Amino acid sequence: MVDLWSGTYVRPAVWEETAAALVRMSGIEPGMRILDVGSAGGGTLFPALERIGETGSIVGIEVEEDWVEWLCNEIAERGVPNAENLLMNGQSMSFPNSSFDAIIMGMVGLDEDYDFETGRIINGAPLMRDVFRVLKPGCFLYNSNWLRQDDNEWMGELVRRYIPGCTKRGYFPGTKGGYLELLRTVGFERVQTTSFEGNYTFAEPAEWVACLRHIWKEELEQIRALPEVSQAFEHDALDVLSDHVDDEGNLAYRRTAILLSAKKPE
Asked: What interhelical angle do 150-162 and 205-213 show, nearest 10?
C-alpha cells in the first residue's frame, strides 16, 4: 500500500498565483504606502513591493509568530529597505486613522466578521471595520478569499467517515453576496468582484496529505493513533483520490477564489 504519511510540505502554487492575481488587479502605484493584512509568507507583499517601487513603502501584519519571524528574515535577506513586517492583530491595529494609500488582504479568514451560512454580521465585523479605519478616504481595499477548495473537500469527506461529528471544512468558504454585504455594511462603496479559478496537481497521495496535514492536524493525529483505523483511512483515501487522477497520473484539483476591490468614500 502507498504510504500516505511520508510526503513533505510544498506550498501549493495556488497561493502564489492568487496573490499575484490580486496585486495585478489592484490600483497600487509607485510611491504608495501599503498595508498588507495577513502577510504570512509574503505572497502579496513582494508582488506589491514591485509595484510601489523605491519611493513607496509597505507594512505587513500577521498574527502567527512563526510567519512573522520567517518573513522578517526574508525581507532582511533580500535587503529590502522599504518593507517591514509586524506581529499584530488586524482587529485592533495600532496605526492612526487614515494611514495607508491602499490595503491588500490575501486569503484572510473573515469567519469572525461574517457568518456566510446564515448571512449575518458578527460582532460588528471588527477586522473589516479596523481595515476601513486605517485606510485613507478615497482609497481602495483589495481582498481575496476562497469560494471552494476541492482538495479540502476531499479531506473533509474522508475525515468525517472516521470522526462523524466533525463539521470542519478546512477553509472558510464564502459567497459573493456575503462579501458584498460585509464590505458595504462597514462603509465601503464601489465594490467590484472577479473570480479566479486555478487547476492544480499533486504528484502523489503523500504530497496531498503533506499539504493539508497542518490544517487537519488534530483530526489526522486522532485517526493515526489507532493502527487499524489508520490503515482503513489510507485505503479509503486512495479510493477517493483514484477518482481525481488526470491523464498524466497526477491528482488534479481545483480552487476557486474571489478577488474584490472596494473604495472608502471621500
From this structure: 90
Question: What's the average model confidence in pLDDT over 229-258?
Answer: 92
Per-residue pLDDT of 117-153, as tens digits, reads: 899 999 999 999 999 999 999 999 999 999 999 999 9
List CB contacts of 217: < 8 A, sequence separation 6 or more. none
Which range of 8-12, 47-51, 213-217 scores highest in mean pLDDT? It is 47-51
Every domain of the chain and the residues it spans: 13-149+170-202+254-263
255 and 200 Cβ atoms separated by less than 8 Å: yes
> 114 pairs with which residues across the strands?
121
> CATH: 3.40.50.150, 3.40.50.2300, 2.40.50.430, 1.10.3720.10. Which one for 13-149+170-202+254-263?
3.40.50.150
Q: Which three cell numbers stand for residue 62?
A: 500577521
- Give the per-residue pLDDT at 2: 62
What are the cell numbers at 105?
A: 488582504
Q: What is the DSSP string of 103-157?
A: EEEES---TTTEETTTTEE-TT-HHHHHHHHHEEEEEEEEEEEEEEEHHHHHHHH
pLDDT at 84: 96
Q: What pLDDT shows up at residue 3? A: 76
